[in-house]
Write a structure and sequence with these properties.
Layout lengths: L2 H11 L6 E8 L5 H18 L2 E9 L11 H14 L3 E4 L5 H11 L2 E3 L1 H12 L3 H15 L32 H27 L5 E7 L5 H9 L16 E7 L2 E7 L9 H6 L1 H8 L3 E7 L5 H14 L7 E6 L10 H5 L3 H7 L4 H12 L4 E2 L8 H19 L14
Parallel strand pairs: 1-2, 1-3, 3-4, 5-7, 5-8, 8-9, 9-10
Antiparallel strand pairs: 6-7
């Protein structure tokens, strides 16, 4: 081999390697095959957001997970054989693992083990920008990892490099014992208390103005919608949890000022301890006068997503607030054809097309929320004006509660 070839080979070998992962899900009796695929698709999307590549999926039908290794002995052997043959870097489970399950699985499989909570925590750690969000995530992560520490864990001090790959100069082995970690947890709690005091002061200064919070399942287009209304450039990506930090902007529409805040997206099986970690974001929702619930209507299970968000809002004591439901991404769905066109189609064609009846949806959800929903496409700009008008109408209702004698001809300047 020539000197030139050896130099090229050396450069190639030092290039960052994309980590590979296999996904594992225990299928309950009530779970359909379609639901299982959807859940694993979402887990694969989370894995991709973290920066790893899914190479295979394992499922096992069980009434309840095995108390020691989550999956049965035979399935565990099958997973171990696949890892050894294809040199897989990590295994990701679609449920939370107990500390003993985590330790047993690492001892058996000899690779990094993620459960759903830890996967989401690591994504949040990558995406957090503000000091408060970073502190909240780091605290939640340490608290979750504390009872799960083993010699194989590299999550604790792993440094992030770039936007699409993980890795860097992080520690290869954990050199800190549980006492040190408890000390760091104490320091983080103290730091968070100071940051939260500042946040409370800022929120007190916003009294007397209508506050609107944009909520919804993750990756439904909340940040894109926020950018349209505020004319700012908030990060909007086709990735789960593109937004972790709460962003607040002052907006004026038709001479009515209000504060609009973007919030972290909700997701199926969002761990309760993770919800608690994002107190600042949740305070924006809890203290809002109006919620704009954005829904990706192009998702085949958008109604399940609505249910997840509704349940989460109820859990954080924000379920009784006025809600403007916004069905986004209508440019990606087929609407009901006219009666004349439908007569030309067979029953099978109608069934396979999976048309959506916007009128029926509007009627059904208006009965639930008391506010007519909006259908739009934020990216293409379809019916953006309709959304603006609906938003202004609902903001004015809240504005009149604060200022019942508000002068309609009073003007305000837009403050970015």
């Amino acid at each position: 081999m020539s000197k030139h070839s050896r130099k090229i080979q050396k450069l190639y070998e030092t290039a960052p390697k994309e980590e590979t992962a296999i996904l594992v899900s225990v299928v309950r009796q009530y779970q359909t095959e379609q639901q299982t695929e959807e859940y694993l698709d979402e887990l694969a999307f989370l894995t991709e957001t973290l920066g790893a590549k899914t190479v295979y999926r394992f499922t096992q039908k069980m009434e309840k997970p095995d108390i020691k290794t989550f999956v049965g002995t035979g399935k565990l052997e099958e997973i171990a054989a696949y890892i050894k043959h294809f040199e897989v870097d990590m295994v990701i489970f679609d449920d939370d693992l107990s500390p003993s399950q985590m330790r047993n699985l690492e001892n058996e499989l000899k690779v990094t083990i993620y459960d759903r909570s830890l996967l989401i925590l690591d994504i949040f750690l990558n995406r957090a920008q503000t000091a408060q969000a970073k502190t909240q995530v780091e605290l939640a992560r340490f608290q979750y990892l504390l009872p799960r520490l083993t010699n194989m864990w590299t999550h604790l001090e792993r440094q992030r490099g770039g936007t699409t790959t993980r890795g860097g100069a992080g520690e290869k082995e954990i050199e800190t014992d549980k006492r040190d970690i408890r000390g760091r947890i104490t320091l983080l709690k103290e730091k968070l208390r100071e940051i939260e005091k500042q946040g409370e002061t800022q929120r007190k200064g916003r009294k007397g103005i209508v506050r609107v919070a944009v909520v919804g399942y993750t990756n439904v287009g909340k940040s894109t919608l926020m950018n349209l209304i505020t004319k700012t450039n908030i990060l909007a990506e086709n990735k789960l949890f593109a937004t972790v930090d709460s962003t607040v902007r002052k907006v004026v529409l038709e001479n009515v000022p209000f504060l609009l805040s973007d919030t972290v997206g909700f997701i199926r099986k969002l761990p309760t301890h993770l919800i608690a970690a994002f107190k600042s974001t949740l305070d924006e929702i809890r203290e809002a006068d109006l919620l704009v619930h954005v829904v990706d209507i192009s998702h085949p299970h958008f109604e399940d997503h609505i249910a997840v968000v509704t349940q989460t809002l109820s859990e954080i004591n924000a379920g009784d607030k006025p809600i403007l439901l916004v069905f986004n991404k209508i440019d990606l769905v087929e609407t009901m054809p006219s009666e004349e066109d439908s007569m030309k189609m067979t029953e099978l064609e109608l069934e396979e097309a999976n048309f959506l009846d916007f009128d029926a949806l509007a009627e059904a959800y208006q009965k639930k929320t008391g506010i007519p929903p909006v259908f739009m496409a934020a990216v293409s700009g379809q019916n953006v004006e309709g959304f603006r008008q609906a938003l202004v109408t609902e903001v004015k209702k809240q504005h009149r509660k604060i200022y019942p004698h508000y002068l309609e001809d009073q003007t305000f300047s837009l403050e970015e």
